[in-house]
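User: what does the whole thing look like in 3D?
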Amino acid sequence: MKLKKRVSISDKKVLLIAIVALGISISLFSILFIHADVNIWEGYSILFTRGFGINYIWRTFTRFIPLFLLGLAFLVPAKAKLWNVGGFGQFALGATGAVAITYFLGGLSSWAIIPIMAIVSMIVGMAWAFIPAYLNAKWDVNEIVTTIMFNYIAIQLISYLTIGGPLQEPGGAPRTEHIPAQAYMPEILGTRVPWMIIIPIVIAIILIFFFKRTSLGYEIEVSGASFTSAEYMGVNYTKVAVLSFVIGGALAGLAGFSWLTTTVGYVEVDIIPTWGYMAIAFGLFSALNIVATAFYSFIITGILVGSDLIMRLTPMGSGVPLTLIGIIFIVTTALQVFRIFEVDLRG
Amino acid sequence: MPDEEYAFQMKNIEKKYLSTGVVANKSVDFDGKYGEVHSLVGENGSGKTTLMLVLSGFYSPDKGDIFIEGEKFKFKSPKSAIKKGIGMVHQERHLIPSHTVIENILLGHGRDRDRLNLKEAERKINEICNKYSFDLDLYERLENLSASEKQLVEIIKVLFHDAKIIILDEPASVLTPQEQEKFLESVKGLAEDGACVILISHKLPIVMNVSDRITVLRDGNVVNTVTPEMTSYEELANMMVGKDEMFYVEREKAKKGSEILRVDDLSALNDKGQEAFNVSFTVHENEIFTVVGVSGNGQRELVETVAGLRKPTGGKIMLRDKDITNFSIRDRIEIGVEYLPAEKILRGIIVDFDLSKNFAMNRHRDRDYSKRGIIDWDMIKKSCEESITDFEVKASGIGTMAGHLSGGNIQKLLLARTLTHCKDLLIAEDPTQGLDVRAANFTRERLIDFKEGNKGVLLVTGNLDEALEISDRIAPIYEGEIQEVIPAEEASKEKIGRLITGSSEWVE
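Assistant: Here's the predicted 3D structure for the full assembly of 855 residues, as structure tokens:
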């Protein structure tokens, strides 16, 4: 038996590798259960019923929305070989921007305030992504470095705004005020799934069309594949780089809006989720395939949600969700080798 | 049985490419002795480069053995081959553009020493340069070097690593005539110094000039091994091609049409910020207007400026009375200008894209293939299929990755894409560089067919024979200036040779 380099790989095999990786990871969870003296059957049953069971899946859907949007926020610029590691900062500021606008327009009805907040979050996310994008396009400043730095700046900025700053709840905790009641995301009747679920799905379909069929999408892909070929074709690199990056920023901002309006309804530095980093892995595991990114986002969100409940319902400690996600990441990463190599049993 | 008389022996080597299923080498025997130049000739795709990549450890053979000085050896990597004294100068350059010459030469060398000794290295490199009369600024960045200078860097790199078995893959294709001559002396010198030199080349005059032995490959098999005294150009060519073929493109007296391109007093800077050229000329319908010169005399910059990749510093470019000097690349394509780049892989294609996606380059905004920014992939695929048949691109289908094509087929793909869509003026930059006789003739024939449809070709080449063969008017360029515009009937190799080397000034 030996490894042979693959010439190409079919979508079916990619999916198979992903499923095998998930299967192995999930079976490895049993070691944790045994170690913590949790009945294996009970552990798995909590994980799956609470993560994917019909009565609880709304939780997974609710969290899937921002995670998938953040995955796309990484994926779109990555098509042009630009690495947006700034999803976290764009997300945090997007949410903060959405809260801030309610300070001025809090009296509007749901129909008005929710779209306005969504748009503001996207604009803020775009603006935050624009600076690293422009620095990269104009002076070739490494966007990985700048976007990471911008995450820190974003957190400091939010600290300033919410701890004694203009957005702090008067006389209250170091956080913003809650958004008005009508600004929370309504749920689809009879379920607890937010209406927002439609948005990432529509966006994904638009993006698939954009990259498969449009001239501009093709140009972004060419720029990612070969800078010199893009130059030869007269593709405006500045435009492509900035555009793909600000689309990413807008999606991350929108993810922040989604998190805000489907959960707590306020922004506090210490509770902002760091999903922006996790979502990078979705894009990478899926080799920048949009459908695969949705798949990873959904499965991992479900396990995240399910393991949250393991943490609460069993004596296992607070590290369970991240440990399980960690196992999935390690196994999936390790099995990526089979996308490049195939096992030759004869050799 | 292995014999110690040989520097190396390759026995029954078979190598199959997984990607295409093509058998590049079918049971090939090949060897080399110290102190000789052994040439490996054959058409593109005959398996020469593959065979040498096996010898230099880049590929492991599917079958067969390699003996170095009589000892059986199995290379695990290029590094283990280098350790055994095998060095290869690649046709595709493996150099880092943003690093200096000396850094590129030292690349991968520091491992077995405590630290890099730049002074010592510089001394050794200068010694090599002096010995073989190479003229190079060791502290210049690679990106600012001409093709021939880059070639020299690769050669020095191999010499620096003390290679005893030196493989040169198409070394002469990017060299100027003088450099070529000097270079051939160096090749002979290397062999006289006791090295075993393997020369891969399409250029029969070179092969006949320097070789002690010549081995001809065709379709992955050895046809024969001969000495220059034993053979002739015709015989070699026949062995390569497999049958008698017309080597020269037929030409008729051109019927010159109206003016397509007028370049007036055009100038632009090179990458170093110096003026690269300052020229005026015209190209007419039914005409191939050829700017011929030794590379590094401003041709590359001229091509880029006319194609729109480089900003002019002065002058005008008129296309059929329209001032296109400040047109974007896209606008130029729309108005009828197509550019066939010399950097086929770097510019012309994307190796990770399949043929249809490659075919979409520049077509992705053409009116025939897209409406309101939406690409009509069905049209592109259909047109791609038709043109690759028309241009005889050998591939298993339009889903093949372009990176799996041979050099000749990549050029055919590029021709298919540009010629079928060019409305007025084609800028062809060294279109036959690195191609074998058949692919080069194919390209030339297609260029002639193309111009005969009332179109114009601005050809830029370093190949004098090519210029004389297919041009209608020839403009030798030297140090950025067109010396004279000569109608093809009045042109001779001697005259052009004099003009492109600047020797005419000395004569007068």
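In plain terms: DSSP finds 14 helices and two strands in chain A. Chain A has a mean pLDDT of 92.
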